[in-house]
Write the structure tokens for this entry.
Amino acid sequence: MKQHKIPLRKCVITNEQLPKRELIRVVKNKEGLVSVDLTGKVNGRGAYLKRDKKVILKAIKTKKLDRHLETKIPEEIYAELLGLFDHE
């Protein structure tokens, strides 16, 4: 039986290569709107973050996500990212 290839992506904060399912994608579309993409299929430039609250907090502190997507990330996006960990 053929084994499926697991797609790997790199976290922009930790620089770790991880399976796509273990990451959260943040997308900037052509209009410049930033959103959290939980499906991994939204059109636009994407940046991946490890599913870890410490990584999200580091992204807020260092503004590395802003530089990667070449835009100012709204506070609501960071709040949404942190909200993913509230119910865990």
In short: The chain is about 30% helix and 25% strand.
